[in-house]
Write a structure and sequence with these properties.
- It is a single chain.
- By secondary structure, the protein is mainly α.
- The chain is built from ten helices and six strands.
- The strands form three sheets. A two-stranded antiparallel ribbon has the order 1-2. The protein has a two-stranded antiparallel sheet with strand order 3-4.
- α2 packs antiparallel against α3, α7 packs antiparallel against α8 and α9 runs antiparallel to α10.
Length: 248
């Protein structure tokens, strides 16, 4: 075989290798899960905040995180272990797990820490109460709902928790009426619904009655309090449909 033939074969081999590499790359890209646009949006917004020198509102970043959660959760089962690891690296500050129940949500501890370091007063106030209401240790439910096998179970009507959280959210909405309005009102609405109609109580009849009495004493003039007082009357009369010592 002469030198010219060898050169032609080498060029053909190189060309073939390039084509194979391109096709392999295209197949890899086609097989990879397509991430929602909000993933890049979140990563970009977080990078802008962490690289800035001054303080700024975290509200837009948090809203992007909330918006991205259901879209990311919808594709979790399609991701390879490597893709899942890459997603987590791209979205620091998000709790992402495929364990039952699958969860994608902002990490309260991460955002509370970021607020102390980079946020404004409204951020720090919001995430202080948000971390108490939606702790990372309870990704499936708010703090006042006990988990059973990882899923929402009974309601902690007894003790000071519900009163403290309700007071915290009312105070935040009063002091910062325009900040995190949707999220803060959503937390209050969830508390309202549980206090007005929740029927699975973790504690005993007497403990729940004491918890309701504490709420009535703390918030005597709220419209919700009338419903709580009526529920308390039914508990004392023995006509309540609430299940006590319930586990979900």
């Amino acid at each position: 075989m002469n030198t010219k033939q060898i050169q032609i074969r080498l060029r053909r081999s190189v060309a073939l290798a390039v084509v194979v590499a391109i096709l392999s790359c295209e197949l890899f890209i086609a097989g990879a899960a397509e991430l929602p646009p909000s993933v890049d949006e979140y990563a970009s917004a977080l990078s802008a905040i962490t690289s800035s020198r001054g303080r700024q509102s975290l509200e837009e970043l948090f809203e992007i995180a909330i918006k991205s959660a259901p879209h990311v959760q919808a594709i979790l089962d399609t991701l390879s272990p490597g893709e899942l690891a890459a997603l987590r690296k791209k979205m620091p500050g998000m709790q992402i797990t495929r364990a039952e129940p699958a969860t994608v949500r902002p990490s309260a501890a991460f955002f509370a820490k970021l607020a102390r370091r980079k946020g404004d007063k409204a951020d720090r106030a919001f995430f202080a109460i948000y971390e108490r209401s939606e702790p990372d240790s309870s990704p499936g439910a708010p703090a006042y709902i006990a988990l059973s096998d990882g899923r929402p179970g009974c309601t902690r009507f007894d003790g000071p928790l519900l009163v403290a959280l309700y007071r915290g959210w009312l105070s935040f909405r009063t002091e910062y009426p325009d900040a995190y309005a949707t999220e803060a009102q959503g937390e209050i609405d969830s508390l309202d619904a549980e206090l007005a109609a929740g029927t699975c109580a973790c504690a005993s009849r007497n403990q729940v009655a004491a918890g309701f009495e504490e709420f009535i004493k703390a918030f005597p003039d709220l419209p919700l309090t009338q419903k709580v007082r009526a529920r308390l009357d039914r508990i004392k009369a023995g006509t309540s449909q609430m299940r006590f010592g319930c586990r979900g």
